[in-house]
Amino acid sequence: MKRIVSHLAAMFSLVTATVAHAQFGSGIVYDPTQSAHAFTQIENEGKSLENQAQQIENGQQIFTNTLKIASTAIQTYNTVPAAIQPLSRDDPCAADALFAVSSRRRPT
């Protein structure tokens, strides 16, 4: 009787060990809910990356436009003294006033 009980206990432990082993990591279990959730997360991450890339492109365009504006402002600022020279021949007072204004704003 002891022998039968010990054999049954051994067989039971082998069967339950196999089932427990499959349950805790050796088998792959498909969960449709989790798969749908993972797919949604991956899809949202892709959209987020696309938005970030668009924001970077917009930032680069804004930076380029700002440089163009600054370059134009500097060119205009540098042409003011050349534009004042012809005025000094016609109206010395107007030329002095324009030159005084432009020289005060000159960066150091």
General description of the model:
- The structure is a single chain.
- Helix 2 runs antiparallel to helix 3.
- About 90% of the residues lie in helices and about 0% in strands.
- The mean pLDDT is about 75.
- It is rod-shaped and about 130 Å long.
- The chain is mainly α and about 110 residues long.
- It is built from 3 helices and no strands.
- The longest helix has about 60 residues.
Order of helix and strand elements from N to C terminus: HHH
Strand content: under 5%
Total strands: the figure is: 0
User: How far do the termini sit from each other?
Assistant: 107 Å
Fraction of residues in helix: over 70%
**Largest sheet, strands/sense/barrel:** none
Shape: rod-shaped
Poorly predicted runs are none
Number of helices: 3
Output the structural class.
mainly alpha
Radius of gyration: 41 Å
Average of per-residue pLDDT values: 76
